[in-house]
Amino acid sequence: MNRPRFKLCGLQSEQDVITASSSQADYVGFVFAESKRQVKPEDAASWLERHELPGKKVAALFVNASPQEIKQTSSVLRPDIIQLHGAESPEQVQQIKDAMAEDVWKALPHNDYTLEKMKDYASIVDGFVIDAKVKGAWGGTGQQFDWSHVPDYVTFGKESGIPVLIAGGINPTNIKKLLVYEPWGVDLSSGAEKDGRKDKQRLRDLEEELMKNV
């Protein structure tokens, strides 16, 4: 079994970037939408300039932002991936995709209609992030959805050839229950934190679980 891809999202300080640099994460993410993890693009760009992340791709997370806003931020940060975490319609995502050179991922909350929505976006996006649905929040809540539905998302990803990452409440204690479903990737934020900052020990514990049975 191959190790699932691993995204470390919500970096919010230079120290977080330093911590990420020594991790096994394949992707790192910065939040540019209103949230407790929001950062300024100039800050994120300066951290990355001082601390290179070889082998890691950078994702920029937006919520209901215009193509102009995304383009402006991307001109400063130069990410590899644009992650759309709001209520962007397929038409809006297409506009953003047309305006940007970067890959575009769409985050969707888990519910009874998620698979149908994935079909609506499948011809547009380069990846999906499936997260827990929490009223009044767009992600990064630490809440977990019913993982018994993960095999449906894994199957969709394999059949469509589109990467699907699972997010929401993943931590060193419960990740082994998720890995039995062999997701393409996992997306972590609060589960890799201690006192609101990315924590090396929690990351090591997570990585140890990710490497089991590989």
Automatic annotation (TrEMBL):
Superkingdom of origin organism: Bacteria
E.C. designation(s): 5.3.1.24
Keywords: Amino-acid biosynthesis, Aromatic amino acid biosynthesis, Isomerase, Tryptophan biosynthesis
MF annotations from Gene Ontology: phosphoribosylanthranilate isomerase activity
Keyword set includes Zinc-finger: no
Reactions catalysed according to its record: N-(5-phospho-beta-D-ribosyl)anthranilate = 1-(2-carboxyphenylamino)-1-deoxy-D-ribulose 5-phosphate
Pathway the protein acts in: Amino-acid biosynthesis; L-tryptophan biosynthesis; L-tryptophan from chorismate: step 3/5
Gene Ontology biological process: L-tryptophan biosynthetic process
Domain called N-(5'phosphoribosyl) anthranilate isomerase (PRAI): residue spans: 7-207
Pfam families in the cross-refs: PRAI
CDD domains linked: PRAI
Gene3D superfamilies: Aldolase class I (3.20.20.70)
UniProt keyword annotation of Zinc-finger present: no
Family: Belongs to the TrpF family.
PANTHER family for this protein: N-(5'-PHOSPHORIBOSYL)ANTHRANILATE ISOMERASE
Name listed for the protein in its UniProt record: N-(5'-phosphoribosyl)anthranilate isomerase
Organism encoding this protein: Alteribacillus iranensis
Lineage, opening ranks: Bacteria, Bacillati, Bacillota, Bacilli, Bacillales
